[in-house]
Design a protein that fits this description.
Layout: H1 2-23, E1 28-34, H2 53-61, E2 63-65, E3 68-69, H3 75-84, H4 88-91, H5 112-118, E4 122-128, E5 146-150, E6 170-173, E7 176-180, H6 187-201, E8 207-212, H7 233-255, E9 262-268, H8 295-298, E10 302-305, E11 314-316, E12 320-321, H9 325-332, H10 349-352, E13 365-369, E14 372-378, E15 381-384, E16 387-394, E17 403-409, E18 412-415, H11 431-448
Parallel strand pairs: 1-8, 1-9, 2-11, 3-12, 4-5, 4-8
Antiparallel strand pairs: 2-10, 5-6, 6-7, 9-10, 13-14, 14-15, 15-18, 16-17
Helix pairs in contact: 6-7
C-alpha cells in the first residue's frame, strides 16, 4: 500500500511539474526590424497613403509605443544596441560598417540570440546582419543557428549612385555565398519564405526569429506582385510588401496554433533617409531624419502583440529604447541578464504589457552621432548639446541623393510632450532642467566619452 501511495505521489509530482512547465512555457519571439522606415509610414502611425493592415493589426491586437527610440540613427550602431542591450559606443561599433571591415561585434558580448539559445530556443536571422562581415563576426558565432541574407546594407554594391568602389554584394546562406549582386526585388520574399519554413520546422520548441529587412533602405525594390500597386509609388510598394510579409508570418503562426504564445514585435532601425526624396519615408511632424539625433532620426514606430499577455489596442508614450529589448526578452525566456559585461538596457515588460502606472525604468537616454554626444532625454525633456548636423535642403529623385548642408544647433531644451517638432527652445525658461540634463550628460561622458568636449570614456570595451 505504501508503495502505491509513493508511486501515486510521484505521478502527481510529475504531472504537476509538467503542467507548471506548460503554463510557464517561454514564448516564441518574432522580431521584425525594418531599415530606414519613417515614423509616419504606417497606417497605425498616421499614414493615409500606404496600406499596412497587417502591421496595423499588431497595434489593434496589442500595444503601440509612440515614444520608442534608437540611440544612433544609423545601421550598424542601431543593430548593435538592439542585439547587445548596450549603447553602441560602449561596445565599439559606430556608424555603418562597410565591406571587409576590420571591426565587428566582439565574442565577449552576449547577444540576445545567445541568451535565448542557452535556454533551448532555436534561433534564426533572415535579412541584414551588419555587425561585421568577416568570419569571426558571423551570426553563427553569435547565437544564431541559421542565417540567410546580406552582411551589410544593400547599397554597398557596385551600383551605388555616388560611390563606385564597393565590391559585389554577397547574398549568404549561413557562411556560404550563394550569389553576388542578387536580384533585390526578391529579398523581401526570400526572407519571408525562409521565415515560414523556420517556424514550421521549430513549431514544437521555443524559437527566436529575427527578420531585419533590407528594405526600405535604398536602393528600394519591390517584387512584380507589388510593383505599381500602392498609392505612393515604388516606396509605397516596398512598404506594402513588407506589410504582406508580416501578414504571412502571422498566418503561419495561427495555422500552427502558435499565435497565442508568440510575441511579435515590429519596429525600425532609425528614421527615413530624407536625402533620397520620394525613395525615402515620411518623418511626419518630427524634425530631420536618419543621420541626425533629432526625433525624425531616432524616434521609430513600435508595435507588439502577444495575446493574453498584452492587452489589445493600448498605447504608451513612456520613453523606451531598443537597448531595453534584450533584458525584457531575456526575462520573458526565464533568464536574467548577467551582471558582467554591463549592459545599458532595462526591463520594460511592465510598459509592453500595459501594466497600470508603468513607467520607464531609465532615468535618461543618450543619443550619440559616432563618438559625439548630441543629446540626452529624461522624461519629457530633451537637451541638445551644441553640435553640427546634416540638414537636407532638397531630396533627390529616382534613387539618387539630393542636396544637403551642415547646420549647427546651440544648447537647446525641448519639451517633447508639448513640442514634438523640436522647434521651441525653452532652455532659458527652465534652467534647473538644463542643469539636471547637463549633469546627466557629464555622467555618460565619463563612461562613453564625447569627441565634442574631448572627453575620453573610461568604460569602453
Amino acid at each position: 500500500m505504501k508503495n502505491i501511495i509513493l508511486y501515486s505521489l510521484a505521478l502527481l509530482g510529475f504531472f504537476s511539474n509538467n503542467l507548471l512547465w506548460s503554463a510557464e512555457k517561454p514564448p516564441n519571439i518574432v522580431l521584425i526590424f525594418a531599415d530606414d522606415l519613417g515614423y509616419a509610414d504606417l497606417g497605425c502611425f498616421g499614414s493615409t497613403t500606404i496600406r499596412t493592415p497587417n502591421i496595423d493589426s499588431l497595434a489593434r491586437d496589442g500595444i503601440k509605443l509612440t515614444n520608442f527610440h534608437v540611440p544612433q540613427a544609423v545601421c550598424s550602431a542601431s543593430r548593435t544596441a538592439l542585439l547587445s542591450g548596450c549603447y553602441p559606443n560602449r561596445v565599439g561599433i559606430l556608424g555603418a560598417l562597410g565591406p571587409n571591415s576590420k571591426n565587428g561585434i566582439k565574442d565577449a558580448e552576449n547577444l540576445l540570440p545567445e541568451y535565448l539559445k542557452k535556454v533551448g530556443y532555436s534561433t534564426a536571422i533572415f535579412g541584414k546582419w551588419h555587425l561585421g562581415d568577416s568570419a569571426q563576426y558571423s551570426p553563427l558565432r553569435h547565437g544564431f543557428d541559421t542565417y540567410f541574407g546580406l552582411p551589410y546594407s544593400n547599397d554597398m554594391w557596385p551600383n551605388h549612385p555616388t560611390a563606385k568602389n564597393f565590391p559585389p554584394l554577397p547574398l549568404r546562406q549561413d557562411d556560404k555565398v550563394l550569389e553576388l549582386n542578387p536580384d533585390q526585388s526578391k529579398l523581401t520574399g526570400w526572407y519571408t519564405d525562409r521565415s515560414v519554413k523556420f517556424i514550421e520546422a521549430n513549431k514544437n520548441k521555443p524559437f527566436f526569429l529575427y527578420m531585419p529587412h533590407s528594405m526600405p533602405h535604398v536602393p528600394i525594390y519591390a517584387s512584380e506582385k507589388f510593383k505599381g500597386k500602392s498609392n505612393q509609388g515604388l516606396y509605397g510598394d516596398v512598404i506594402e510588401e513588407i506589410d504582406a510579409s508580416v501578414g504571412t508570418i502571422l498566418e503561419t503562426l495561427k495555422k500552427h496554433s502558435l499565435d497565442k504564445n508568440t510575441l511579435v514585435i515590429f519596429t525600425s532601425d532609425n528614421g527615413p533617409w530624407l536625402s533620397y526624396g520620394h525613395h525615402a519615408g515620411s518623418k511626419g511632424m518630427l524634425r530631420e531624419g536618419k543621420g541626425t539625433e533629432f526625433e525624425g532620426g531616432v524616434r521609430v514606430p513600435f508595435v507588439a502583440r502577444w495575446p493574453g499577455k498584452i492587452p489589445a489596442s493600448v498605447t504608451s508614450n513612456e520613453p523606451t529604447m531598443t537597448i531595453d529589448l534584450l533584458p525584457t526578452l531575456v526575462g520573458y525566456a526565464g533568464r536574467v541578464v548577467q551582471a558582467e559585461p554591463k549592459i545599458d538596457g532595462k526591463n520594460i515588460s511592465a510598459i509592453i504589457e500595459a501594466k497600470p502606472n508603468a513607467k520607464s525604468p531609465q532615468e535618461a537616454y543618450y543619443f550619440y552621432w559616432g563618438d559625439a554626444l548630441h543629446a540626452v532625454t529624461s522624461g519629457k525633456w530633451k537637451l541638445h548639446f551644441p553640435h553640427p548636423y546634416l540638414h537636407i535642403i532638397e531630396g533627390g529623385s529616382d534613387g539618387k541623393p539630393g542636396k544637403s548642408e551642415i547646420r549647427k544647433i546651440e544648447l537647446s531644451l525641448f519639451d517633447l510632450d508639448a513640442d514634438i517638432t523640436e522647434s521651441k527652445n525653452v532652455a532659458d525658461q527652465n534652467p534647473d532642467v538644463v542643469k539636471k540634463l547637463q549633469i546627466l550628460g557629464d555622467k555618460i561622458r565619463e563612461e562613453l566619452g564625447d569627441s565634442l568636449t574631448g572627453k575620453k570614456g573610461s568604460k569602453l570595451r
